[in-house]
Write a structure and sequence with these properties.
This protein is of the alpha/beta class and 125 residues long. The chain has one domain: Rossmann fold (3-Layer(aba) Sandwich). The chain has 5 helices and 5 strands, in the order βαβαβαβαβα. It has a 5-stranded parallel beta sheet, sandwiched between helices. The longest helix is centred in the C-terminal third of the chain and has 15 residues.
Length: 125
C-alpha cells in the first residue's frame, strides 16, 4: 500500500530532495506545500497523509504553531509529525523530540530519513 508523505517547508529544494529520494521507492507518494496555512487547506480537503515532515522555521506561521493546530484537531491529531529542520539548538531538539514523533536536522541523509519514516509507520500498524 502506497504511503503518503506531506512535506511542509518553505524551501522548495527540501521538498524536491525528499520527493526525488523517497519516490524511488514505489511505496511512497510525496506531496508538498510551502506553509502551515497550505498544510491546513490540504488537510481540510481530506488529504490525510501517513506522515507529515514539518519545518520549524517558516515565514508567517512557524512549525511549532502548525503542529499545535494539527494536534488540536480531532481528525488530524493522530497523523505522525516529524520536524525536519535546520534548527539545531538544544531547546528545539528537546522540545521538537518531545512534541513531535521525531526530530531530524537538516542537512539530512535520505537513507536515514527513510528509515526513520518507516519506523514511525511501523508503529502505527
Amino acid at each position: 500500500m502506497v504511503k503518503t508523505i506531506l512535506v511542509v517547508d518553505d524551501d522548495p529544494s527540501v521538498a524536491y530532495t525528499v520527493k526525488q529520494g523517497l519516490e524511488l521507492d514505489v511505496n511512497y507518494r510525496v506531496i508538498s506545500v510551502n506553509s502551515g496555512i497550505k498544510c491546513f487547506e490540504l488537510l481540510k480537503q481530506g488529504e490525510l497523509p501517513d506522515v507529515i515532515l514539518l519545518d520549524i522555521m517558516m515565514p508567517g506561521m512557524s512549525g511549532w504553531e502548525t503542529l499545535n493546530i494539527i494536534r488540536k484537531n480531532e481528525s488530524w491529531r493522530s497523523i505522525p509529525v516529524v520536524f525536519l529542520t535546520a534548527r539545531t539548538d538544544n531547546i528545539a531538539k528537546n522540545a521538537g523530540g518531545f512534541l513531535a514523533d521525531d526530530y531530524i536536522e537538516k542537512p539530512f541523509k535520505l537513507l536515514e530519513l527513510k528509515q526513520r519514516i518507516e519506523r514511525i509507520l511501523n508503529k502505527k500498524i
